[in-house]
Amino acid sequence: MLLMERFLAGFLLVLLQSSSRVTHADPDFRPNFLLMMVDDLGIGDIGCYGNDTIRTPHIDRLAADGVKLTQHIAAAPLCTPSRTAFMTGRYALRAGLGSTGRVQVILFLAGSGGLPPNETTFAKLLQKQGYTTGIVGKWHLGVNCESRNDHCHHPNNHGFDFFYGLPFTYFNDCKPGEGKDVLVDLQKTLWQISVILALALLTLLLVWTVGLLRIRLTFVAFLAVLWLLSFSVWFVPFELLRTWNCIIMRNGEVVEQPMNVETLNARLMLEAEQFVERHRDGPFLLFLSLAHVHTPLFVSEGFAGKSKHGLYGDNVEEVDRMVGRMMKTIDRLGLSENTLTYFTSDHGGHIEDAQRGGWNGIYRGGKAMGGWEGGIRVPGIFHWPGHLTAGRQVPEPTSLMDVFPTVVKLAGGELPEDRILDGHDLMPLLEGKASRSQHEFMFHYCGIYLNAARWHPLDSDSIFKVHFFTPNFSPAGAVGCYDTKVCLCHGDSVTHHEPPLVFELSADPSESRPLSPETEPRFPEVLERVRWAVAEHRRTLTPVEKQLTWANVLWKPWLQPCCGTFPFCSCSETHTPEHTL
Length: 581
What we know:
Blueprint: H1 2-20, E1 32-38, H2 57-64, E2 67-73, H3 79-88, H4 122-128, E3 132-138, E4 162-166, H5 184-210, H6 217-239, H7 241-245, E5 248-250, E6 253-256, H8 264-278, E7 284-289, H9 310-332, E8 339-345, H10 373-376, E9 377-383, E10 392-394, E11 398-399, H11 403-410, H12 427-430, E12 441-446, E13 449-455, E14 464-471, E15 494-504, H13 523-539, H14 550-553, E16 564-565, E17 568-569
Parallel strand pairs: 1-7, 1-8, 2-10, 2-11, 3-4, 3-7
Antiparallel strand pairs: 2-9, 4-5, 5-6, 8-9, 12-13, 13-14, 14-15, 16-17
């Protein structure tokens, strides 16, 4: 009798626990979202995607306990356009953030280009559903349009209640001694012009002083003004670039200028943890956008010299610890079953940066190389205990743009009907309710130029990839654009192919064996179907203002975020945490 009573009591307890557990099928249930994005991480840099020299146990555990996407594609191979597509669920050129020439990303924080105010981000839609939204880390989608404090492109104007981090990005100029990144050849030219003018001015003054030549003072004054102007055009925007671009903002306020790199990572992690703790009662969305592993690489206490893959490996292992720390926070607060966690990179690794860049595994190419797989195939991990089957792998084509409709639908929101979305809800694939991706076609852009397209035929498991043009690698024989550091998308920098290069990715993921009519019976059909899809896709494009023109990206002093009185911008954040993880 006693045994039966214990059995009934235990059975009732299980029933009560089961009935109290909310699921996403409950119309009133709104999960939290933790979205983590690494900067420039190669798909081959982490253990669960094949790396056996860099230790990433926390990321590997996230994949083992969740769902791993093995054909997860960034919409662009560079930061600004890829993050635009991620935020909006649309190809970047729909927002005007595709490049027509050399400038492929936002170069100056005081430029006027950026994510237009009329674009709809997933954060805006989640705000309408009662979510508290936050971003900690890198933004790189602009700040101001017409005045220093209009913040038209700022995260707070794009649906994020809270922002702490880098409104620009982390790059070489942010760390003294690491060299320069922005328009280096132009800087050199401007410096040479100022030197020539200075020498000419000094020579004239010397000749005039010794009486060898009579010179009008108005001409000397004109030459002096011309020298001062040329020197200022070089020195002010470029030599002070660390002050202008490398800053930390808390919402609309600049709290550190220039930023202290040594304590940056600890502050980002502390802010991310505190955001989750403040909003533990939810629902919340936190986008943790890490400064790692973009160069210059961090030299962090506790990680330096620990990896078998040098300083870059040290940085990846530090990223892994950051991921583990966030998951520990979620677990400690009892939020695991109520929080959908996502991990990815904005695009592939930067292979031209010698030992400081990432590894893209078996895939050809890397960052800024158009449609080559190494620059756009990225890690994609979803983790949601009690909702997603642990250990599932999804080999179907998926996109960073799919995060937009996925989180909006899970939050109970409505997808916008006044614009075209290029992403699709991932939940059917993640839950195993669908076996095929909704992406029959995907388009790969290099700037505004449609570089390549993939086709996943409805009657086949094949994935055909068609390259209309490819970047010209340099020097000859290299697999990358080592002479220019990044590949360009136009003019003599590319080679157009007619017929296009065609690969079958399921059999040749390295894109090393182009198909031909002799080797692939479907070759003519592939070209016909892809060209039809490209034509249909182009019919959906509408003219928008281009955000990455020279006029929009160059430095404008009246748009420069500043703590203090411009141009004397300088401040340090107080009460910084210990820089350990």
